[in-house]
């Protein structure tokens, strides 16, 4: 939206935009809780300290079920946003997440956990598609980037909170506490005005005008309405298949393949393994100078700081440099962790090696949150024109979900056949390839307009 106001008038005028942004951040915080849940409670299932028994195979399926829910969530997210709007989609997602927490509270067997984790996985991708569309439709141009970055950082904050709570409270108490922020964002979204873009697409012109003025009382209503009408008219003419055919255009095809490749590298970095099995990895690595739970909490906290630093680095250094630097750091991290487990297998004294996994996990948290976490989301918004951006987001989320599932499954399969150190070396090799890919393929979009970015893609 094109709102007319001075930077000094932000305070007190755009408060409803900030409430929407904070609600979206709370929503991502809850998704972070669902991810952070895995590490402490999988460790409990493995050690036999859980409220009910689960075999090693059942514990592995708790991780896989979450990943299986993600593709369904991506498809549902695309369809629901198209037909019901981003606000309604996020309210529905909140209701689903409330159900998932209640299922864990009531769980007396692993089957209940399966259902809850599947719902959580689907909710993660529903949120991933919905919040950028919602914030893009209700926020001012000079606030949009900040709000999206703020919302994304809610994920790492939730992950930190999940790891911290999981180390200190029972599974049921964790879920009871998690009900609170889930209810908060669901109720908040229910009270916020609908997106004026969605209202206009339903020919509710009067309601759209009211929504515009609620989100920004100083908006030039005639200019805004005319702009939104043109956008909606052009979007409504495009069917799903006509949008899909636009990916036959060379620049869109290149951009689509690039986003899929970036998601492959991001999901194949070991991030899903680290978030699900952190405490187990620390225990297997024979780290005794610090408890596994504390180690995970500190590592996640370092990742949170790195994520907030990304808000300043993304426009200062450019997408390509950040991706390459991030991939290089992850290569070192995985190579060091692989060397640690190789040396343990070779009979080295574990007490003299403890600094290796500590260093590796800290470096991983910093480098992943500085680059691989955010760059695919940023480029989806930059490489595609508005009428196919939603479909591009679907392709991005769907590919990330599929690669996330494959990465977890491959980790479990490889761990059964080779020493754990070799698995991390495979991740290291993939990160080396990711570094080369970034140098050769990722465009440097710093300070470029969308038209300039797409023209540069035609030349590559």
Automatic annotation (TrEMBL):
Q: What is this protein called?
A: Facilitated trehalose transporter Tret1
Entry's transmembrane regions: 12-39, 59-79, 91-108, 171-192, 255-277, 289-310, 322-343, 355-379, 391-410, 422-442
A matching Pfam family:
Sugar_tr
Q: How does it sit in the membrane?
A: Multi-pass membrane protein
Q: Which Gene3D superfamilies match?
A: MFS general substrate transporter like domains
Give any Gene Ontology cellular component.
Answer: plasma membrane
Instruction: Identify the species of origin.
Output: Neodiprion lecontei (Redheaded pine sawfly)
One MF term in GO for this entry? transmembrane transporter activity
Question: What keywords tag this UniProt record?
Answer: Membrane, Transmembrane, Transmembrane helix
- Segment forming the signal sequence: none
* The keyword Nucleotide-binding appears for this protein: no
Q: Which residues form the Major facilitator superfamily (MFS) profile domain?
A: 1-446
- The gene it comes from is LOC107224654
Q: Where in the cell is it found?
A: Membrane
């Amino acid at each position: 939206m094109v709102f007319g106001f001075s930077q000094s008038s932000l305070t007190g005028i755009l408060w409803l935009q900030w409430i929407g942004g904070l609600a979206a951040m709370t929503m991502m915080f809850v998704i972070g809780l669902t991810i952070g849940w895995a590490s402490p409670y999988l460790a409990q299932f493995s050690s036999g300290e859980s409220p009910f028994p689960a075999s090693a195979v059942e514990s592995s399926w708790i991780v896989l079920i979450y990943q299986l829910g993600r593709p369904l969530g991506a498809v549902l997210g695309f369809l629901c946003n198209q037909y019901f709007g981003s606000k309604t989609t996020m309210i529905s997602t909140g209701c689903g997440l409330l159900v998932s927490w209640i299922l864990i509270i009531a769980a007396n067997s692993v089957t209940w956990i399966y259902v809850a984790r599947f719902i959580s996985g689907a909710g993660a991708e529903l949120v991933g598609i919905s919040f950028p569309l919602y914030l893009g439709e209700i926020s001012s141009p000079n606030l949009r980037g900040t709000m999206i970055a703020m919302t994304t950082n809610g994920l790492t904050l939730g992950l930190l909170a999940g790891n911290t709570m999981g180390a200190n409270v029972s599974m049921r108490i964790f879920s009871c506490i998690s009900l609170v922020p889930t209810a908060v964002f669901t109720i908040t979204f229910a009270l916020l005005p609908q997106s004026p873009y969605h209202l206009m697409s339903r020919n509710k012109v009067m309601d759209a005008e009211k929504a515009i003025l609620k989100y920004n009382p100083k908006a030039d209503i005639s200019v805004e309405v005319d702009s939104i009408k043109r956008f909606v008219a052009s979007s409504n003419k495009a069917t799903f298949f006509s949008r899909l055919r636009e990916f036959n255009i060379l620049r869109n095809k290149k951009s689509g393949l690039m986003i899929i490749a970036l998601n492959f590298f991001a999901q194949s970095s070991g991030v899903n393994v680290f978030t699900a099995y952190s405490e187990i990895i620390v225990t297997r690595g024979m780290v005794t100078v610090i408890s596994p739970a504390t180690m995970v909490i500190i590592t996640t906290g370092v990742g949170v700081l790195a994520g907030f630093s990304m808000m300043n680095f993304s426009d200062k250094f450019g997408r390509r440099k950040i991706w390459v630097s991030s991939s290089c750091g992850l290569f070192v991290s995985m190579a060091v962790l692989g060397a640690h487990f190789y040396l343990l297998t070779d009979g080295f004294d574990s007490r003299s090696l403890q600094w290796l996994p500590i260093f590796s996990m800290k470096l991983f948290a910093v480098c992943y949150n500085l680059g691989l976490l955010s760059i695919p989301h940023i480029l989806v918004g930059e490489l595609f024109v508005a009428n196919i951006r939603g479909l591009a987001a679907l392709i991005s989320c769907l590919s990330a979900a599929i690669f996330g599932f494959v990465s977890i499954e491959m980790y479990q399969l490889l761990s059964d056949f080779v020493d754990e150190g070799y698995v991390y070396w495979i991740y290291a090799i993939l990160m080396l390839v990711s570094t080369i890919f970034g140098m050769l393929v990722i465009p440097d979009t710093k300070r470029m307009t969308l038209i300039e970015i797409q023209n540069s893609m035609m030349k590559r």
